[in-house]
Amino acid sequence: MSFTIPIGPYHPALEEPFKLEVTCQGDIVQDAAMHVKVNFRGVEWLAQRRNYSQAIALVERVCGICSHLHTMTFCRAVEQLAGLSVPARAQYIRVIIAELERLTSHALWAGVAAEVIGFQTMFMTCFGLREDLMDILEIISGNRVHYAMNCIGGVNRDISNPEAVLEIVRSIRQKIEEKLIPIFTTDRTIRARCIGIGVLTKETAINWGVVGPTARASGLTTDIRRSAPYAAYDQLEFKVPVETSGDVFSRVVVRLLEMVESCRMIEQAFKQMEPGPIRGPEFVEVPPGETVARSEAPRGEAFYYVASDGSDVPMRVKIRTPTLVNMPVLKFMVLGANLADVPLINASIDPCYSCTSR
Amino acid sequence: MDKGEEILSRLSLGRSWEKRSDGWWLETRDMDLEKMAHVMIESKARLVTMTAHEDSNGEVRIIYHWDLEGRMLNTVAMTDKGSIPSIAMVYPASDWMEREIHEYFAVQFYGRESSPLYLNPGDSPGIFLGSAADRKKGKET
After folding, report:
1. Which domain CATH number covers A7?
2. Cα–Cα 20 to 30 A to A238, which of A65, A258, A260, B15?
3. What is the Cα Rg of chain B in Å?
4. Residues on chain B bordering chain A, Cβ-to-Cβ distance under 8 angstroms
5. What confidence score (pLDDT) does residue B138 get?
């Protein structure tokens, strides 16, 4: 006899609301259905009732973890519409914050995954690392979560003490290479819980348009920083880690290797960026038109469509977050899995319901 | 031949791409959407998302945003009396996108056989409809 178990909308492993209903035969999952948008906030609708500057503060609230990414992508879309160019130093600063944000996000994710696995000391290690990262962001921006760094035409703040930031980044890189990667990849409990679990095949990932580390753990090479470079990414050397097994372990490995690459990119950016202005000419108006902009968020590609009718209020703002395209494949990942593995499989795509509901 | 041009020739529309800095755009009312989805998949283009917004004549303009090796291909279609063919049976990635557009603009996607046309069962379709009318209020405040 099969039975259906409702998980959520308040979830035992993740604090954001969504509902997963799994149908099981014994402990084995046979089917799954999802309900999202339990906490719909209408950010797109609201953005169409705020002027462009106000909309920046609004889209920053789409997500508390990748907030910089959202303001950067929105600003890039508006800059394209207005024909504004962004100074080189501002482009590097955007990259530095974006990569610090990726590190923060991946450290948070690794901590959550460790907790779901039952590895409390690793959870504390990851969150300790995340504290260091949030300290850097506070040094730069004054804020630990919503950094308010982006404005149309550049950034709001310069990085006045790069050596202090670099010193912490180097120490973080050392911790990732000497603690996180060895423990996550060799610990027997982690390997037992992650290898061969929650497999997403490359074919399913393609059919469902999956993005980010979830796609790259299934053999896809998609990364907007590489395929459609923006800001200063075309000036930096970096690897795009790809794994082919498509299981939870592959998603762990991809994110850990990405953390090292993020540190490398930050170090390169500091080395390469030269003194100069951080904002272009004053933003005056946005002519009628429409455009799209994309960025590689920690969870994958984020997409913005902005249309203008020439007024100071956007006519249409469309936001497609990575979780919205990654979530649907969860039902394939949990098929045939043990019920006890469902929370970990769910966590392995690093879902953000705040982004999804927006 | 460039892959984007090859896609266009396979769509047999007798039009050309509008090449912009943010990607290539194609606006047409006579596109066979199912064929477009097949051609895009066979060309290894990825559906990034679908954008919808109200047109001045009461219909909904729907843009299919595709990624072709890093280049954006944007194909634009229009609903007919609020309806448009679904491509979810051809390309599963569009499933949630169509459901979200139904929730926001009450667009009826016909030809779908699988999932219900909503993401949250508590929502009424069309929550964004008519929103253009009160948009200027935001500008005044």
Report:
1. 1.10.645.10
2. A65
3. 16
4. 20-23, 46-49, 51-53, 63, 65, 67, 69-72, 74, 91-93, 95-97, 100, 103, 119-121, 123, 127-128, 131-132, 134-139
5. 47
